[in-house]
Amino acid sequence: MFRCLAAALRALALLVALALPALPVLSGAALAHEGHDHGADAPPAPAATAPRAEAVSERFELVAVVQGTDLVLYLDAFATNAPVPEAGVAVMTPEGRRKAAETAPGTYRLAAPWLAAGTDHDLVVGVSAEGRTDLLDLDLHLPTPIAAPTAGPSASGAAASATALADRLARQSPAALAAGGFLMGLGAFALALRRRAGQSLAVILAVLLAVGATLVLALFLGGAAQAHEGHGPDQTQPPVTPAALTGGTLMERARRLPDGSVFVPKSLQRLLALRTGLTAQASVTRSVALPGRIIPDPNASGVVQSSVGGRLAPPERGFPRLGTRVTRGEVLATVTPPVQAVDVSDMRQRQGELDQQIAILERRVGRFERLSTTGAVAQTQLDDARSELGGLRDRRAALDAIRREPESLVAPVDGVIAEANAVAGAMAAPGTVVYRIVDPGKLWVEALSFEALAEGSRATARLGDGGTLQLAYRGTGLADRNQAVPVQFAVEGEAKGLRLGQFVTVLAPVGPARPGLPVARSGVVRAEGGSLVYEHVSAERFLGRPVRVAPLDADRMLVEDGIAAGRRVVVQGAELLDQIR
Predict the structure, then answer these.
(1) Distance CA 216, CA 207 (A)
(2) Which of 467, 510, 511, 504 is nearest to 489 (CA)?
(3) Which of 142, 226, 282, 329 has the fewest CB atoms inside 10 Å of its own CB, making it the most exposed?
């Protein structure tokens, strides 16, 4: 019994001796190839952006980005972040002075094959513009190249044999190895049945140990085979060079960094048209926002009304359409007064009476003319008769004109037809507004103010689409209107696109002047719990600063707290910048 047990233990020891040298190798290979992680010397994951360097001067901001074997230079104005086109850009490289070619406004490209010679490059860039030259220093760092993994020292002796055996077994199918182990266990069990009954316990133990060792070996060998599936024993990884890590196929994206700042590559800044401005202290006056609307200038506008009721009719050239420019005195429409049946009867009776009186006076004038030659009738009597006859004829002609000639509606001022209610054949009541004429270059704004405004104050107005108007004070009313008084301003400059009755927000100054920090209204972004502005802290990084603001005018806001003077603040594209996550 003890001899059989010793034999079984020796067989198990042999299997373990063969398996143990291979286990570290096989398990290490399996772990190494799972996810392709080759140990602590593996390179870090490549960054989401290409290698870059930046430099600034009093006038310029420069960013250099490595794209393959080229160096792309983005040149912007330091204060405004606007691209600087048509500048002379020369770079002192290890190969000497090289001039970069402009590929887009503010974007310059330079061939840089010397990038592969090392990982650290100190470059001097000369930028010439507007008769001046600025020198900027760039400190460019490239990723360290990663060499291909080398094979370890060769094994010898029993370890080499065990390793070779493990490699041969690793190429076998796991199912075949498991089946072989199971058959070996069955053979050992059948052999044990032929021994004495007293040895049954040792045989059973030997069989169980042999089968267990075989299954363990098959498990490890099968895992190694699966780990190496698709990877031949002679496969090696090619070395990684800086040029491979800086290929031009990498798409740079904006992202919000863990510290809350926003990283925006220069290439994307050009697409978003981000512009900045330097904050500076100034003497400003607090403004109040007033509701207002566009009204016409009373000296450059008018209405066309019918003085009598009648039927509208077009002039010879037809009714003028909306937007037509007309001149003062131009006939725009005619009104024919209606004549009732009773009025027609009275007019006919009156016409008959006038015709009879005219006939009598005509005969009297004829007699006076004959008698005046003999001196029987004085010349004065003849003249009086002639005058009376002329007056009767005028009255008769006026009655005819009332029935035939309509009233002409003429333009009272020069301007543009802003409102038209003329329809051929329509009946117009006395006082009906047929046309409204406005001079589009002379418009006013009427606002309702709850605070007293200084006479002669200059104000601004903000339109719904973001446009602004400059306003000049014209006067303040004394009549109360909804607990406010109307204030009128004249629109200065061009007023294209405005319409009568359009609502605007008037920003009028109130109170004394005081020092403050004005910023562009487009640079203030509404955030949770307040407002913020984005400071341009570096060439490709922006940081949101919570601020407390107050309205200043149509284009600016007054920063009361949150940022100091001399900072670069985004004045265009801040809303787009705030959406980056």
Answers:
(1) 14
(2) 504
(3) 329
